[in-house]
Amino acid sequence: MKQSATFIPTLRETPADAEVKSHQLLLRAGFIRQNTSGIYSFLPLGKRVLDKVEKIIREEMENAGSVEVFLPAMQQAELWQETGRWYSYGDELMRLKDRNGREFALGATHEEVITDLLRDEIKSYKKLPLNLYQIQSKFRDEKRPRFGLLRGREFLMKDAYSFHSTTESLDETYDVMMQAYKNIFTRLGLDFRMVIADSGAIGGKDNHEFMVLSDIGEDTIAYSDTSSYAANIEMAQVNIEYSVPDITAEEMEKVETPDQKKIAEVAEFFGTDAENCIKTLVFKADEEFVVVLSRGDHEVNDVKVKHATDAKVVEMATPEEVKELIGCEIGSIGPVALPENIRVIADNAVKTIVNGIAGANEPGYHYKNVTPEQDFQVEKYADLRFIKEGDPSPDGQGTIRFAEGIEVGHIFKLGTRYSEDMKATILNDQGRAVPYIMGCYGIGVSRVVAAVAEQFNDDDGFTWPAVAAPYDVHVVPVNMKDDVQRETAAEIYTLLKSKRFEVLMDDRNERAGVKFADADLIGLPVRITVGKKAADGILEVKIRSTGETFEWKQEELLEQLEQVFQN
To answer: What's the domain range around 160?
Structure first.
């Protein structure tokens, strides 16, 4: 492609609202443009990268036995109402009505639609397993779109769905798809980890996320420093045997604590450590209020609270709800003498507190010498806190360390979560109607583009890996008015194209400095500069990823390029 004939609007300055490197460079190098908050157009270079990523995904999906379909983006509300997600998915679901007042959603995900399709078509276990996938735009009304393609309101996603008659069949496909995902991200050269994850609004039990390690990642990975264990911090289990201190439980006493509300303030007031304080929070689990207790130096994990209460949706109670329920402000809540109808669950560490400090459910007062089971009752103890760096690894090997990651893929064992609600059944080998057993496998395609862009760059621009680069080679004639340079560049351009190299030629009448700056910014794997030495058959070649430069004879160009792209 000749650069004068395509659309690459490069920018010299970094846009003020672009916070991360990938977003800055994708804008500056002319790969994308923002239409509105969280919604982007892919320009020619960006579309070519997108196509490269899709090609790898399609190849690995085909190798895994998944077949491509294309499902509607507009989904009737009735399907989402069958599963209850119309009511529980939240404000991220974009809803609309047609001219007749019928309600629809713009597809945030496609479990309901694919289940509806299969329940009408597949009636026998003999036609299973079946694995279908699509690559399509998804829509989510993000409260705070940010980081360019990493968190948007419209984005491209590959979602696959598998259907089975047995759990053993699901397990087999899950493992195959897991390997396919590893292959995809490895081929793209990404530094990633597969981690244990929470299913969120999708549902299901067993699931794993694929995280690209990055300082700007919005997810924290907890991993062992000596084993392969890795989990999203929301799902990392705390396996610690807490010991009860060998002290006598004293009588509880109410103490006036004016203006002491935060754990650190209360601990300092009583001359103790935060770990001797009991943190009391109120959650709303579906429609039921639950008091959750943790040690003062620990943070309550709402995902674990959700699992402990078997709730679909868990959120913090509002200050108004707490006031109505308990009769005090949030900073004064404690577990002693709560209303009888409130459930109380506690993290395992709370069980070992003796003579602790807790709120008195009265502004300006706390209790000291508070001991669980003596001064208040707990319905259930469980692992309810976030794991901390330095905690033992849940697999018993090493200690936990943290890293930040960008989620690029997520695989789920859905089981019968959707097929039961939607009455999607098959006849099994005994002639009985049973619900489909399902799996779900997603990759954020446009997010992968951003993750690759985030990983492969330097101070001057992109350093695309060959598998994802929009073109293989950038041919740059320094002076288009020089007949030898212009004609030599045209010869190289034609030759390389005939050998199936993807070539971008900068045939613009621009200064050399502008051309070189744009070439570095765009970041194709190889730049061939056709300059003054072209008259002697000498070309200057730059390997973008390393910055190395060479002088090659024109007649050895093909041989040298083949070696570069084989490495």
So the answer is: 3-236+401-453
